[in-house]
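ENTRY TYPE: protein
WANTED: fold as tokens:
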Amino acid sequence: LFRSRRGAACFVLPAEPPAPAEETLIDPAFRTIMFTDMKDSTGITTRLGDARALELFRTHNSITRDTLSQYNGREVQHTGDGFLASFFSASKSVACAIAIQKSFAAHNRNNPDAAIKVRIGICAGEPVEEDDRLFGSTVQLTSRICDQAEPDQILVAAVIRDLCLGKQFVFGDRGEARLRGFDQPQKIYEVQWH
């Protein structure tokens, strides 16, 4: 408010505040993370040739994506010979992993010359989400757990076993593992699915 030379009261409206710079949404919500990995994808291509291997990869992708969809899993990233997926429920992720392994076991019984062997790792925590991708130590730990698994095996972090308390899953104690990039040994459990 100020007075003009003639004494009239005048109001000055404040300038419009600048529009906020567009920010990238970073969402650190709690999630269950799953990694799947197809055994020996390079060897499959060498053994079967490009065309036949491509058919096998398509079968692998179809089985995994269909099963993720059935259990409300979200495909975050296709890694070429596996998937990074997230779930809001630890028990759904374990049920999904079991269903994935059972689907591949059925495929392998019917196609012994084109067997697909998959290993799965699951963990939970608060990964950082940016641009529909997940980052952070939870994702890295899940990847390392998957690396520890043998084909046809599902390995999970202790947090998954704890979150599934009271569910009808059977977990075998695999002891502690030293995982690359982590200072402390990590307790790992195997999901019994056979």
